[in-house]
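stuck on this chain:
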Amino acid sequence: MSAMSMFPGHDAGDSSEADPADGANWSGAQSWQVGPGTPGAAARDTRKTLMQTLNAEIIPRLVRSHRPEPVDLPRHVPAPIDEADLERFVHACIDAAPDRHLDVFDSLRADGHELPQLYLDLITPTARRIGRLWDKDDCTFPEVTLGLFRLQSLLHSLNDEFCASPAYRQPQHRILLAPMPGSHHTLGFYMLAQFFRRDGWNVCSAIESEPSALVGAAKADWYDVIALSVSRDSDVEPLRTLVHEIRCASLNPQVGIMVGGPLGLDVKVRELLGAEAYSGDAIEALRAADRLVRERERPN
């Protein structure tokens, strides 16, 4: 019996009138149209192939074609921290009520402000504002001490959360952060250390270290960048000497030197100190440090 006579309703006599090309198509099709009861590996292979095609291609395409388009839900964007927010937080920090500053801070977080923004746009200007209040005799020394202590404590309490998911860096770069010995601007350096840790840097903070200790640290360990602060005219010459001693002793002969602080804005001061970069805030410091590392990685 021919393969075509296996299918009811097909007239074998019609084959004489078929086009040769149609015959070729039909002979190819018969390998798929296996009649009931036809044994053999060909039938099993055909069904297996069909099932694989169904699972791998047809069903996934049908699912994709019927999947609803994703909907972008509106995201709450908080209003920028304004002068009223800043004044409220400043007065809460120097207020006698022990937790008022935390209430203000938490309310701003609940409104949608992220920690990096609160660090840069709230905590940093608050510290400066408290310092100006002291300079103008608009607050007492105990109030200044209390306000800065609260800001420092707040940063400490947020450290683990802020640095919980650091960026991955390979290789991991190292930075030594140190305010000029005798400087009281430790809050900014502690905050800067958190930003660098969050960005994947290995950070050593040498607060209240003597110049000889900083030179010893640079000699004992490899640092890609060393960041120092200069905030007083009287700091310039001692810092110039310190930078020279660090360069001579550094385990990394191409260590990058970055300065911060009010006087670091002055280009002449930076040139006098022999610093290659200035950091005005934490974000600028990250960019400057990355630039220093990239410049030293370029082939000569």
Q: What stands out?
A: Residues 32 and 47 are 9 Å apart (CA to CA). The radius of gyration is 36 Å. The longest strand covers residues 174-178. Residues 1-35 have pLDDT under 50 and may be disordered.
